[in-house]
Amino acid sequence: MKLVQLGQSDLQVTPICLGTMTFGQQVSEEGAHAILDRSLAAGINFIDTAEMYAVPATADTCGLTETYIGNWFAKNPGARQKLVLATKVAGPSRSMPWVREGAGMTAQDILTSCEGSLRRLQTDVIDLYQIHWPERHVMALGFHYFDPSKDKPATSIHEQLEALAQLVKAGKVRHIGLSNETPYGVHEFVRLAEQHGLPRVATVQNPYALVNRVYDNGLDETCHRLNVSLLAYSPLGFGLLTGKYDETGFEGPGAPDGRVSRYESVRKQCWSRPEALAAARRYNQLARDNGLTPTEMALAFCYHRWNVTSTIIGVTSVAQLDEDLAAWSVQLSPEVLKAIDQIRWEIRDPSL
User: What positions does the domain NADP-dependent oxidoreductase occupy (predicted)?
Assistant: First the structure.
């Protein structure tokens, strides 16, 4: 597995990244450390977390994922130097008032959050520090249209970049990135950075899966031309693209254990729409018809897509991790890729 470069940064990472948002909710600290051990042994050099994790987010678990990772670093003194570590400053508090006081994400919020992450992670530097979601109103994760009437006063992108520049200058952050961003947002962050001599974003971390390819609707060109790398998250569509919900759905007798079936808060999100499950069933059957497991096809699609630099996989066990890593060797035929595009033509992106 060759290393790939993140944007114009000097960060070289594996094209598979270990996502950790299950640590602290579905995964105990012992289980998290076993997954981290196995991931490192398998050659994965890239892990991603966030100050607000675990997910589903609660006041009791906020910051717990970073704490688990920090404790693992303390137990494994040589591990930190082998890894590219990414974490995120949460966007405005909205429905999570325990993240910070106030509704916004000021320069001081960014600086304070970074100090908290460094402390929990037990490290002196964060390799990739990302803004988890924009403070301004955007079309993302359940919002189908941009609505200017929902705009409210927000911290300017310039002010946020200046705060991030302070962290880079202090040696606490090496490079910066975005998450859940739009073409406008990515372009504006790059424009202002270049205009004012501020840090340039290396990455954008957005959802990308068979049931959500909104990235392909323009953000792909933006990132390609600006040399900003996509970190694709939820490649299995919160488990829909593993096939485990195909027969039972999310609730009732026989429903498998998973984030969508276990947590009501997750069932209210875009991933669990009836249209999303219907679409996932079609993709999953296409995989089976071609001698693949649904997981293999969904991951192989992301792993080898030209516009995906690294795919973030989230697991709850070592066995799941091994299954996801094994899918790296799967190559989809032109016929399967054509069939995937045909399904998308008919149903578009039901998990937007």
Answer: 15-343
The count of other CB atoms within 10 Å of the CB of residue 257 is 10
Q: Report the alpha-carbon distance of residue 65 to residue 144 in Å, rounded.
A: 30
H or E element: which one contains 32? Answer: helix 29-41
pLDDT at 258: 78
As a whole number of angstroms, the distance between CA 181 and CA 192 comes to 16
Alpha helices in the chain (DSSP H): 29-41, 64-75, 79-82, 107-121, 157-169, 183-196, 219-226, 259-262, 264-267, 274-289, 294-303, 318-326, 334-347
Give yes or no for a contact between 87 and 66, defined as CB atoms under 8 angstroms apart: yes
Q: How many domains does the chain have?
A: 1
- Does the global pTM surpass 0.90? yes
- Active-site residue (options: 53, 129, 208, 215): 53
Here the CATH number for the domain that contains residue 195 is 3.20.20.100
Contacts of 281 (CB under 8 A, 6+ apart): 246
C-alpha 292: how far from chain center: 25
Query: Reduced to 3 states, what is the DSSP secondary structure of residue 298?
Result: helix
Asked if residue 199 belongs to a domain, the reply is yes
Is residue 229 within 8 Å of 175, Cβ to Cβ? no
Known catalytic residue at 53: yes
pLDDT for the residue 235: 98
Q: Give per-residue pLDDT as tens, 327-349.
A: 999 999 999 999 999 999 999 99
Residue range of the domain that includes 109: 4-243+297-333
CB contact at 8 A, 160 and 110: yes
Residue 151 lies in a domain: yes
Is residue 269 in some structural domain?
no
